[in-house]
Amino acid sequence: MSIGAHLIELRKRLMIAAAALIVGMIIAFAITSPIIEWITAPVRQIALERGDNLSAINFGAVTSAFDLRMRIAFTIGIFLSAPIWLWQIWAFIMPGLTRKEIRYTIGFVASAVPLFFGGCYVGVMIVPHVIQLMWSFTPDGAANLYNAADYYDFVFKLMLVIGVAFVLPVFLVALNVAGVMSGKAILKGWRVAILIATLFSALATPAADIVSMLMLAGILIVLFFAAAGVSMLFDRRKARRMAAEGLLGPRA
């Protein structure tokens, strides 16, 4: 295909993806109420424990409530339309891939997607503990009026960051398959990996919430060692295949 034909194909794929996103947003807008009720449950629990109305989500502008629903609809719409826009991306790049590359790509996507959503779920589990802990530092008689947009950004960004962190081991395996890093080289960096996982967990969770920090760090460390193990397994299979083809000499 010529460059012009590629651009036409890209435009068509983008239009289909955009249409799917709009449909997903329309569907998501209808379920924003239960989502808002779900993510604000920790704040209502705080108000219940305090026995007053000094803890609540605050909508400071006339359009704040509508803006929040639109932002939630956009986020959920991306997830709902993911099968369509992911397929459009795949359909655009697949003609330029070999069978082996296609097989590896499918394997990586099949691994990355559940890991990402698993990370988001861990983020959902951590959020109530974080909010409860931060509330515990509020002086007596003070109010906790959380700005709706800031509160949603906090919840969404925490889920997104932890979700992406869960996918990073897949990229380590991808680097191994591409021949950039060997499994042994990945495993040698275990000290650095533990340090990074601990620092990331400390930044993603409040300093005083040791339980959440250790839980998140432990999961990330396990995923790192799993990626190293899978990479070493791939290296062993590759070495056996090359030895069978006579590309490797006898080991000393």
Amino- and carboxy-terminal Cα gap: 50 Å
Share of helix among residues?
over 70%
Tertiary shape:
flat
Total number of β-strand segments? 2
Question: How many strands, what sense, and barrel or not for the largest sheet?
Answer: 2 strands, parallel
As a whole number of angstroms, the C-alpha radius of gyration is 23 Å
Taking pLDDT < 50 over at least 5 consecutive residues as the criterion, the unreliable ranges are none
Transmembrane segments: 14-36, 72-93, 105-131, 154-178, 190-208, 214-234
Protein name: Sec-independent protein translocase protein TatC
Membrane topology: Multi-pass membrane protein
InterPro entries: TatC (IPR002033)
Report on the structure:
- It is a multi-pass membrane protein.
- With 252 residues, the chain is mainly alpha-helical.
- It has one domain (3-245).
- 78% of the residues lie in helices and 3% in strands.
- A two-stranded parallel sheet has the order 1-2.
- The protein is flat and about 80 Å long.
- The model has no long low-confidence stretch (mean pLDDT 82).
Topology:
Elements: H1 3-29, H2 32-39, H3 41-50, E1 55-58, H4 64-80, H5 82-93, H6 99-135, E2 144-147, H7 148-177, H8 183-188, H9 190-204, H10 210-244
Parallel strand pairs: 1-2
Helix pairs in contact: 1-4, 1-5, 3-6, 6-7, 7-10, 9-10
Please give a quick description of this structure.
The protein has 252 residues and is mainly alpha-helical.
